[in-house]
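Residues determine shape. Next comes a sample protein:
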Amino acid sequence: MCAALLGSVVAAGTWLTAQSPASMRVPQFRKVILDGAFRAEGVALADVNRDGRIDVLAGNAWYAAPAPEALLTPSAWTRHDIAPLEPFDAPTGFSNAFHTFALDVNGDGWPDQAILGFPGEPATWRANPGPRGGTWRTHLLSASTGNESPALARAVRGRGPVFVMGVNEQLGWLAPATSPFAPFEFHPISEPNHPTAHRYAHGLGVGDLDGDGRADVVGTKGYWLAPETPGASPWPFTPADLGPDAAHMAIYDVNGDGLADIVASAAHAVGVWWFEQRVASGTRTFVKHAIDASFSQSHALDIGDLDGDGLADVVTGKRRWAHGPTGDPEPNAPGVLYWFQPRRTATGVTWAKHLIDDTSGVGNQVVVGEIDGDGRLDIASANKHGVFVFVQR
């Protein structure tokens, strides 16, 4: 982070609209345990069987959602195997799915599954067999992966969702090739051998940082502003200190000043924070503000407007045994899951902390999305405690 700001800057908070905490709705969540076994640390939401209900994918299994009236009954969710279930050892091992994503790779109208496993290993996708049922056939997505916070996002204008991650230590975006069964095509973003693209790098986010309508990419070492021509590479890079090793980095306007800010959390240490973007005399700087410092290993983060106040809230929690029962600070502390509610006041932004659960936490992913069709956002998580959904009621 730049220690000094060039030129004059409007005092933080002077542009904010006051909100009354008493008028805010505080969502409540009902926990549903879909699986008590360690299946994956990545999770995705999609209507797998196209029955109009949102299902959960976690590693080698997917869980079919029941009718809305049975949604809170764990036994009503039916587990289906995508691949043979494997016994993963929670204290000493990892699963084959650090990240799970759902997207229609082959264009047949059925959501397929993408699996990113241990950092540096190949990424694959599995074709949904559709109405005929049977085997989910596995295809190579990428020969390697880099950065432990890869993204599936609309990062390139005119394209659907693409993957943003490292491949052979070069950051880039990947999209399906002309033949859907060939490995995805790689388009460079960074120069080769960039630290953000290393297999064990932490911290990555996609969003419009500079307000030009194009999605940019941020890491803890700086940011890449998207070029006008999508295929141009490498993208222009600006070094910046955007914190220590992080999980997913969210880009949006936190304080309402018209500039996109960055929210992040500590993958293996303690802390959740946001970087306030300031621009003065053409110079872009970022000021770090703490959100929370009460728990460790917040290795996954997502955002969404949980309370319907028009502001994006932050969901994160503790990853179970990221480096085993003796690694990282407080490895055996409760598996907490929180949502943080930003409140814009006349003097700045405060964050209300809400505990959702303390016996689950996050894995390498936590997903905010609509599950029960009531218009309120819900949450899904998969980790060494099991597979869970948290339905907003």
